[in-house]
Amino acid sequence: MAGEGTGTWAQMLAPQHRGAVAVLAGGTLMFAIDTYVTASLLPSAVAEIGGQAFYAWPTTLFLLAAVVASSLTSRVLATVPAARAYLVALAVFAAGALVGALAPSMAVFLLGRAVQGAGGGLLAGMGYALIRIALPRTLWTRGSALIAAMWGVALIVGPGLGGLLAAAGQWRWAFGALVVGSLVIGALVPVALHRARSDTSPGPFPLGSVLLVGAAAAVLSVAGLAGDVLVAGAGLLVALALLVGFVVHERRTRAAVLPRATFRRGSPLRWVYGLSAVLVGVSGLEAFVPLVGQQVAGLSPVLAGFLGVALGAGWVAGEMVSASAHRPRWRVLAGPGLLAGGTVLVAVTLVALDGPAATVLWAVGLVAGGLGIGTAWPHLAASAIGGAETGEGAPGDDAPDEGEADKASAAVTTVQMLAVSVGTALGGVGLALGGTDPLASARWLFAVFAVVAVVGALAARPAARGVPTRA
């Protein structure tokens, strides 16, 4: 890996790659826009179809279905050609969106969200898989940065589209737009992915792992909704036990979700996945930033919304810049430190300052934290994708293990989604620790995430060993 060099954005758009890149970008954009557009239009949807008591469940069911589906990506790709698998994912996603657009009640709407989550999870999982099977290794970090760029586009398009349609009383058309977008991307797939192949055997079905992952995701989603610290804390403990059980099961079974290289003695791959989970988990605090901005700083919903995307914007910017780096190991070491510094800055500001100056420092800290995630993420993702292709998971070991490569690609998304669930639940616990005082809740929220970020910075060195010294 060290001597292959780093590809350019021009190479990403070369004739032999542009079709796969367009499909990769489009599928990721559909999943990302859905994530943001639903949050912005949900109040209007609930006002029309009812179901106020189930307000949080459209997101919960979507995330649960996405986590389970993403963990099955490697088996789907090993069973059917990449083009057909991607068409199935788009069809399921579009079907769920269509149900949501036509839903006469909350029960039907929830069914649509679950179906859409299953399709979205497959799209997200196959995004990283397509990077491996449709692009040369020199373009893997660029491919990861492209995925981040689509999330950046969704940060703008999703809330804007949902807000405008909701204000016009036409929220259903947001889901209709996702159906149309899926059809457009689907029309490109047969030509764009006709050469993409995953030459692996399906292997045994990972039923035990999928059940454990699904149970953990369900518990974490519910725990993140709890307003009571004891309930949220108990949910975290139960979910942690399930995740420990998942790791133990993965070490012992042949029907695994994670590649075997993860558990080989001396392999840095476990640290790569672990640090990835910490970085993404800390990003879960952005879901609470608009609430803190309104309750503590007195910001308008619009300004609080912009503050809420500060971390995501920093992530996208950091990843686009870092994807061109020729010293990826240094980036993996520096990124978690920058995330920890930004998170600590916000936590300290909440204790020491107030007023406009404090709000500015919050924004600076959030952007810095996002830059830290984006600086490290593309190299961690590329190392995870390629880690299973080496016999011992160590840099420089070129013994191929192609049968595990799809698992490594899909596991990036599975770990990412589980980490978001953990981060959301952790944020719920932080808010609960502050009781009914918004300022105390905000202080606890960022203090908890600051501790996690600092732990991630301290654990960056062993993960960096799994990244080549030079791209």
From TrEMBL:
GO molecular function, one term: transmembrane transporter activity
Domain of life according to the entry: Bacteria
Gene3D superfamilies referenced in this protein's UniProt entry, alphabetically: MFS general substrate transporter like domains (1.20.1250.20)
TM regions (residue ranges): 21-42, 54-73, 85-111, 117-135, 147-167, 173-193, 205-223, 229-248, 269-292, 298-318, 330-353, 359-377, 417-436, 442-460
Coarse class of the protein's main subcellular location: membrane
Keywords in alphabetical order: Membrane, Transmembrane, Transmembrane helix
Domain called Major facilitator superfamily (MFS) profile: residue spans: 20-465
InterPro entries, sorted: MFS, MFS_dom, MFS_trans_sf
Cellular component GO terms held in the UniProt record: plasma membrane
Compartment annotation: Cell membrane
Its membrane topology: Multi-pass membrane protein
PANTHER family: MAJOR FACILITATOR SUPERFAMILY, MULTIDRUG-EFFLUX TRANSPORTER RV1634-RELATED
Protein name, entry field: Putative MFS family arabinose efflux permease
Species for this entry: Actinomycetospora cinnamomea
